Amino acid sequence: MAPDMSAIPQPSTRPARGLRRASRGVAGFVLTTAVTFLGLLAITFFIGRVVPIDPALAVVGDRATQEQYEAARVALGLDRPLFVQFLVYVGDVMTGDLGQSITTNRPVAEDLARVFPATLEMATLGILAGVLIGVPVGVWAAVRQGTWIDQVIRIFALMGYSVPAFWLGLVGLALFYAGLGWVAGPGRIDIFYDGLVEPVTGLLLVDSLIAGDFTVFGNAVSHIVLPATILAFFSLAYIARMTRSFMLDQLGSEHVTTARVKGLPEWKVIWVHAFRPIRVPLVTVIGLSYAQLLEGSVMIETVFSWPGIGNYLTTALLNADMNAVLGATLVVGVVFVAINRLSDVAYRLLDPRAKR
Amino acid sequence: MSAGPRPAPRSGLRDWLLAEAPSSRRQAALGSAYRTWSQLLRNPLAVAGGLIVLGLVLVAAFAPWIAPDTPYGQSLSERLMPPSAEHWMGTDELGRDILSRVIWGARITLMIVVLVAVISAPLGLLVGAVAGYAGGWVDKVLMGITDIFLSMPKLILALAFVAALGPGIENAVIAIAITSWPAYARIARAETLTFAQAEFIQAVRLSGAGHMRIVTRHVIPLCLSSTIIRVTLDMAGIILTAAGLGFLGLGAQPPLPEWGAMISRGRTFILDQWWVATMPGFAIILVSLGFCLLGDGLRDALDPKGRT
């Protein structure tokens, strides 16, 4: 849950000059991304191999004869060399085959496609709130460095690294749902409204608006507001901390002093001269934070019975449904890597020093 | 630097420690430790963090004497009692005193944190130092593996490992350690690269030291301070992951008084008996916050570049 504290992106010092160099950069980028994805597959494959449960034995049962057992092993491809098994696994994943879930009796890929929008919806709301609040708060703390406001914001940001997400979820439920009755309880929507709206995007808020059903929309909002706020808290803590740190660097630099000496109004010094240069590294921070929210949603979804990928993963874990566990791990890993690489690309595109 | 008259010989331990020109290696080492220490003491938040961590160690060490009850002492007639003078944190569904369980749980948390650090930090240091020192294809392969692990979300990877290895506190420790070492490898490599070609390493090599000796005796010690900072900063994350695994029923198993597992048990009663789940959470927050503050302070004292 705790985001990488040391992940302060360094400004790229390599300007890409010329088309040849740029194309080599693209090729290198594609190659490293491919290697990372292959590595991801290797990890999930390895985890699947070290499972103490013998998959062949699981198919035929304890009473099977030696021949039946061997036949099952051959049928599952377990008699082949490990390397061949890995290639088969990679081929399967490439064609979208993640195996069958033993809990839902459906292909894992189908299950994941069904639950993913719920997670996406919550994480997106979380990151939006995190950015809209975290950035101004971080700037504020930097401008008021050393004052009590700064200290309060610092402690608050550190809380984001110290509070267990599942605990905050439980306390939130006890307080705002059971105690005050301000929000709806666990789940994505009341059973009464379930299935009323035709799924178009899978995002309930968007779908209910498309259908023009504001009752469903309101109900969905009252369900999502608490878990999304809690997720937002964690991204807010990280974003505010990073913004503060970037701003402190800028506020201490000479061009800001120059702007002050010229007699510019303070808001202009802060938001134009100090804030503009940090927009680029902030993009990377926000990207990282978004990826981490997907991870953080595992705990939140479990607490709120939110039918997303995290809940799917933990349900599968408790049922020892390894295909589902590995499939969900893989999908989260791929999204995680993809967001990280994309924020990397965005960084290079936005940083004027990286332009020709 | 050498301009001006040498300061007159001063007396006192403090002056000896802060001497501009230490006369022995030991004096220099103690002097720099003292400087770090006094810088740390000037930071009130770091002191608070240090005290919290010290408190955790003391509570864990003296749990049998501090706790009013044993962690397993059931009393069904007193189940689910709210916090009172007798039970400061109330009792759980089996009438066990929650305060006592939280105090005994400090031992489990401390054990997890220490074990993860002891497994993952040396592993990361070794991988990073070897990669940075050797360079070439060794560096490429080792860092490639490191990057793949780093590119995976930690909690998810730990969950998948525990799912494969089976639930339990030992497997939780192994899973968290597997997900923690890459960060240290990265740091150790970056540090190593800054002095791998330095003259003192050349000198050691020319005097006939083997690669193994250079890495373990000369490279790794220099990577230690930044790794220690990072480990301290990571402690909060390790505690939260361990508690998360416990909460999901994949880490420490009941009746062990692990804080995450206790919150999981209290989940059923959260709407009416809020204290069962809430109290262990405060312990987690306090201890994690302590490690964060201490790590922040250590970084400010040891590495002024990375101030946040």
TrEMBL record, chain A:
<feature type="transmembrane region" description="Helical">
    <location>
        <begin position="280"/>
        <end position="300"/>
    </location>
</feature>
<dbReference type="GO" id="GO:0005886">
    <property type="term" value="C:plasma membrane"/>
</dbReference>
<feature type="transmembrane region" description="Helical">
    <location>
        <begin position="320"/>
        <end position="339"/>
    </location>
</feature>
<dbReference type="InterPro" id="IPR000515">
    <property type="entry name" value="MetI-like"/>
</dbReference>
<feature type="transmembrane region" description="Helical">
    <location>
        <begin position="122"/>
        <end position="143"/>
    </location>
</feature>
<protein>
    <submittedName>
        <fullName>Peptide/nickel transport system permease protein</fullName>
    </submittedName>
</protein>
<dbReference type="InterPro" id="IPR045621">
    <property type="entry name" value="BPD_transp_1_N"/>
</dbReference>
<keyword id="KW-0472">Membrane</keyword>
<comment type="similarity">
    <text>Belongs to the binding-protein-dependent transport system permease family.</text>
</comment>
<feature type="domain" description="ABC transmembrane type-1">
    <location>
        <begin position="116"/>
        <end position="343"/>
    </location>
</feature>
<keyword id="KW-0813">Transport</keyword>
<keyword id="KW-1003">Cell membrane</keyword>
<dbReference type="Pfam" id="PF00528">
    <property type="entry name" value="BPD_transp_1"/>
</dbReference>
<feature type="transmembrane region" description="Helical">
    <location>
        <begin position="26"/>
        <end position="47"/>
    </location>
</feature>
<dbReference type="Pfam" id="PF19300">
    <property type="entry name" value="BPD_transp_1_N"/>
</dbReference>
<dbReference type="GO" id="GO:0071916">
    <property type="term" value="F:dipeptide transmembrane transporter activity"/>
</dbReference>
<dbReference type="InterPro" id="IPR035906">
    <property type="entry name" value="MetI-like_sf"/>
</dbReference>
<keyword id="KW-1133">Transmembrane helix</keyword>
<feature type="transmembrane region" description="Helical">
    <location>
        <begin position="220"/>
        <end position="240"/>
    </location>
</feature>
<feature type="transmembrane region" description="Helical">
    <location>
        <begin position="155"/>
        <end position="178"/>
    </location>
</feature>
<keyword id="KW-0812">Transmembrane</keyword>
Automatic annotation (TrEMBL), chain B:
<feature type="transmembrane region" description="Helical">
    <location>
        <begin position="274"/>
        <end position="295"/>
    </location>
</feature>
<keyword id="KW-1133">Transmembrane helix</keyword>
<keyword id="KW-0571">Peptide transport</keyword>
<feature type="transmembrane region" description="Helical">
    <location>
        <begin position="45"/>
        <end position="67"/>
    </location>
</feature>
<dbReference type="InterPro" id="IPR050366">
    <property type="entry name" value="BP-dependent_transpt_permease"/>
</dbReference>
<feature type="transmembrane region" description="Helical">
    <location>
        <begin position="155"/>
        <end position="179"/>
    </location>
</feature>
<dbReference type="Pfam" id="PF12911">
    <property type="entry name" value="OppC_N"/>
</dbReference>
<keyword id="KW-0812">Transmembrane</keyword>
<dbReference type="GO" id="GO:0015833">
    <property type="term" value="P:peptide transport"/>
</dbReference>
<dbReference type="InterPro" id="IPR035906">
    <property type="entry name" value="MetI-like_sf"/>
</dbReference>
<keyword id="KW-0653">Protein transport</keyword>
<dbReference type="GO" id="GO:0055085">
    <property type="term" value="P:transmembrane transport"/>
</dbReference>
<feature type="transmembrane region" description="Helical">
    <location>
        <begin position="235"/>
        <end position="254"/>
    </location>
</feature>
<dbReference type="InterPro" id="IPR025966">
    <property type="entry name" value="OppC_N"/>
</dbReference>
<protein>
    <submittedName>
        <fullName>Peptide/nickel transport system permease protein</fullName>
    </submittedName>
</protein>
<keyword id="KW-0472">Membrane</keyword>
<keyword id="KW-0813">Transport</keyword>
<keyword id="KW-1003">Cell membrane</keyword>
<dbReference type="InterPro" id="IPR000515">
    <property type="entry name" value="MetI-like"/>
</dbReference>
<feature type="transmembrane region" description="Helical">
    <location>
        <begin position="108"/>
        <end position="135"/>
    </location>
</feature>
<feature type="domain" description="ABC transmembrane type-1">
    <location>
        <begin position="106"/>
        <end position="295"/>
    </location>
</feature>
<dbReference type="Pfam" id="PF00528">
    <property type="entry name" value="BPD_transp_1"/>
</dbReference>
